[in-house]
Amino acid sequence: MEDHLCNVRVGVRVRPLSNTELAADSRQVISYPGRDVISIGDGKGDKSFTFDHVFPTQMSQQELYDGTAAPMLQSFFDGYNVTILAYGQTGSGKTFTMGSECGASDDHQGLIPRFVEEIFARVAAPTIESCPPRDENSAVVCNPLFADSHETAQQPKAVGAAPIVTVSFLEIYGEDIFDLLQEPDSDGKATNLQLREESGAVSVVGLMEVPINESREAMETLRSGTRHRTTASTLMNTVSSRSHAVFTITLTQRLFGEAYGEDGQEVVSKLSFVDLAGSERLKRTGAEGQRMKEGIQINKGLLALGNVINALADEEALKKKEKVHVGYRESKLTRLLQDALGGNSQTLFLACVSPAEVNISETLSTLRYANRARNIQNKPVKNTDPLTEELRKLQELNNVLKLELVKEHFHVTSEAAIESSDLEALLDREDVKAYMEGLSQRLNCGGNNDFKALTSLAQLPHGQSTAMGAAPSNASFAMPLGSTASSAAASVASAHRVSLAHFQKRQSQAVYQHQHQSASAATGPDDVAVDKEASSVPCDETLDPENDISMVRS
């Protein structure tokens, strides 16, 4: 699938009035004038917002999951990164919505337990050789409950090996990053982990990834990490999270099928749940001492996140397609969320709000915050090895060009749609095999006359013509059937040499960059001065199809 832009999806979750708000006789100031529309105000000059999802107070946890899970879970299995963020003021129900507290009954389970259960239901399901992938590049282990039996029988084989699932759990406390799955040392202190950026991707050095075989293990791991998370009581929340938490599920699959080659292709995707600490007003929380310092750090991180959202959602810059500076490095939080906001991820931004009049100012601020996030555009890509993916595409192009050459040489007509069985029969014919073997020998025989030799070979006599159908409609690289066989042969020879040379050039660049990054990691990021001119492999971007065969052989 080609890379494509997609906007961050934004939903709003409205919690019921709390016991404190009911005791204070605080009335509700939120209404729902239309589908996915929310209005806030006292009835005079109300402010309305439209979002991708609006979940009112009566919406159950199961209904919330059903409204968000289906498209995101499928993207996760298709090899794309997925991120779900929960944002809102303290006490607005973020942790309850995400389900990271792990103590809820089945009806009150949040998003994380429900996603985990569904993920392992799919992983444990029998692999279906004919299971229909979502697009031409997808091939996943499918749950038979979600496959239509009639359509399934018509799909080609695309078999996935048993996936590997790992989980990690971290918290950002102030500007420190701690692994919640690692036990503190003998002094009760946890190790402060560092961030590292390689090839545009940000990772946490030393973060533990725990292999998981079933949903029960995943929930036990989540429960263990939650016990280490920093919480405290304030006037607005008796169990207030004092840190941002990120729970990540990593799925590694090896896909097999005609599109993935004999050895298959590895796809690694991540599903991240981000439970942000709530924004606070110190006057209302009554925080003092360490709690006050924590609140200041929380607001500082959320301010940096707001600046990132404002930069990415700048409407004027988006219309003019101008590049703007995005301050990802202002905090550890924004650096970790670099992919989720404006990067390689499909993202759902869940704004959790209170309907009480006493919180109207914070709720309005949260809704404005979420409304700006709708303008953010991400560019999710399938997480495969780029060199392997490019080689696969070149092999597909090579096969299509070979097919067009055979059709031209053996006078395959376009009177009717060609059947796959007829296509296989054509390529298995002895005269076709001999013809293609001759082409291959001429291509690899050496000398400066290979290009002319291929052209002349295409004009050799052949057997009786075969009337068959046209190429499949998805052969987008096919040449016009009216072209001569000699031009078809020339195109195959040229495209074959140029594409292989281009692939070798990209491969040498990747090897050089990997060596350079290894050297940088060994000496530390601050000890290496990168010379831009020296950090690229010199190469000639223009390849001459007549003279570049020596490059291919080398």
CATH homologous superfamily assignment of the largest domain: Kinesin motor domain
Please give the domain count.
2
Strand runs, count = 18
Q: Give the DSSP E fraction (strand runs of 2 or more residues).
A: 15-25%
In short:
The protein has 554 residues and is of the alpha+beta class. It is 38% helix and 18% strand. Helix 12 (386-409) runs antiparallel to helix 16 and helix 14 runs antiparallel to helix 15.
What report would you give on this structure?
The protein is an alpha+beta fold. It has two domains: 6-114 and 168-246 and 278-383, Kinesin (3-Layer(aba) Sandwich), CATH 3.40.850; 387-553, no CATH class. The protein is built from 17 helices and 18 strands. It has helices at 19-23, 61-77, 94-98, 111-124, 149-152, 215-227, 282-285, 290-312, 315-320, 332-336, 360-373, 386-409, 420-428, 430-444, 450-457, 485-523, 549-553; strands at residues 6-7, 9-14, 30-34, 37-40, 47-50, 53-55, 82-87, 164-173, 176-179, 192-198, 201-205, 210-212, 231-232, 240-241, 244-257, 261-275, 346-353, 377-378. The strands form four sheets. Strands 2, 6, 7, 8, 9, 10, 11, 12, 15, 16 and 17 form an eleven-stranded mixed β-sheet that branches. Strands 3-4-5 form a three-stranded antiparallel β-sheet, covered by helices on one side. A two-stranded antiparallel ribbon has the order 1-18. α14 (430-444) packs antiparallel against α15 (450-457) and α15 (450-457) packs across α16. The two termini are 32 Å apart. The model is unreliable at 128-159, 457-485 and 522-554 (pLDDT under 50).
